[in-house]
Every structure is written in structure tokens, then in C-alpha cells.
Specification:
The complex is a heterodimer of chains A (114) and B (115).
Chain A lengths: L2 E3 L3 E5 L4 E8 L6 E6 L6 E6 L3 E5 L2 E6 L4 E6 L8 E10 L6 E5 L3 E6 L1
Parallel strand pairs in A: 2-11
Antiparallel strand pairs in A: 1-3, 3-8, 4-5, 4-9, 6-7, 7-8, 9-10, 9-11
Chain B lengths: L3 E4 L2 E4 L5 E7 L6 E7 L6 E7 L5 E2 L8 E7 L2 E6 L8 E8 L7 E2 L3 E5 L1
Parallel strand pairs in B: 2-11
Antiparallel strand pairs in B: 1-3, 3-8, 4-5, 4-9, 5-6, 7-8, 9-10, 9-11
Classes of the chains: A mainly beta (114), B mainly beta (115).
Chain lengths: 114, 115
Amino acid sequence: GQNIDQPTEMTATEGAIVQINCTYQTSGFNGLFWYQQHAGEAPTFLSYNVLDGLEEKGRFSSFLSRSKGYSYLLLKELQMKDSASYLCAVRGLSNQTGANNLFFGTGTRLTVIP
Amino acid sequence: GAVVSQHPSWVICKSGTSVKIECRSLDFQATTMFWYRQFPKQSLMLMATSNEGSKATYEQGVEKDKFLINHASLTLSTLTVTSAHPEDSSFYICSARAGSGETQYFGPGTRLLVL
């Protein structure tokens, strides 16, 4: 089966750095994605890792260790608008269909305070 | 990034009626489209996967006769919730990708409220 774990909630201060962790156990692995989702809106793509290491994109960086089944999303210079849910998603094999699908964690609700 | 649209964005309907939701990829050809459902404060749950011109494949626990999916072209998929009931009230989100190794892009979602 698919099991993706993230902390439920985090709070951080404007201007600071925050790290959101994600651990996973899935049937097959074909990449890990991070999405940002504001309340009532659809997720927007942030980053993609398929090989071990760090991918940096502006204020956002994402790290992957396939051997440990672990990823994190790092947000620097936090802004108030970064308050949102951050979803870790793994592309793996559906037990039902055998197809390559994206499976989501429960999401981490980040609150940025002044 | 690529653009995926959904229509309508909001639906309020009476119990027992059917509701159709459209999902379109606007600037790429989507060989595969996905339908997700999200209840409040929960994560996205994959309902079904559809490939253009093929029957949709449904995840365990999702009734295929209740949630009808049609993927008639490379840019359009529809989800019809038949005989909707209040427990079907949820946020329905479609997603599309060009190929199996490509990024999935999400539509803006459709909020369904069944009275």
C-alpha cells in the first residue's frame, strides 16, 4: 500500500526558514513532488525530485533520499503569503490498477506569523 | 506551468440529481487525466485515472457506476456524479499530464454541495 507521512501543522515567523519533512513507503517509486495548496484552491506545483539530493528553486528547496524514504521542503525568507498547506506526493504504482499514479500525504498546514 | 481548467467552480444541487464536471487541458495534450476528491482538512484522494479513448480505471472503494468518467479527447475529461447525495459533497479536483513521466498539473477544483 501507500503510506506518506507529514506533520499536520507547523508555525514559523516571517523572514525565518522552515523545513517540512515527509516520509514515505510506497509500491514502486517514480518521483516525489511538493505542492502548495491555499485554502479552497487546487494544489500548485512547487518541486520534483527523482534522484537523491537537493533541488533549489528560489526561496524553495526540496531534498530527497530514496534509501531512507525521506524528503523535505525548505522554505527560506518566509513571507505571510507562504501560509498554506504543503502536500508531499509520491508517484508510485496503484495497487488497484497497477498504473503509475500520484499519491498524496495529508498535507502540512503552515502558518506564518509576523 | 501548464494550465488546466475546470467548470463549474461551484455547484449546489438537490439530492438525487446528477452533476457533470468538465476538466480541460488548455495548452497541452493530456494523455492521462486524474480525478481526486478532497474532504475538509483531508488530503487529496485519487478516485480514478482515465486515458484518452479508454475506460477509466477506478481506485478501490470508488463506485464506477456512480462516478462516470469520460475522456473523449486529449484535452477534455468529464466526471458525472450520478444521483448525488449529501455525502458526495466535496471538493473535486482534476489533474492532467502529457505523458507518464511528466508533471501533473491541477485544475482549480469544483466545490459540490448536495442538499
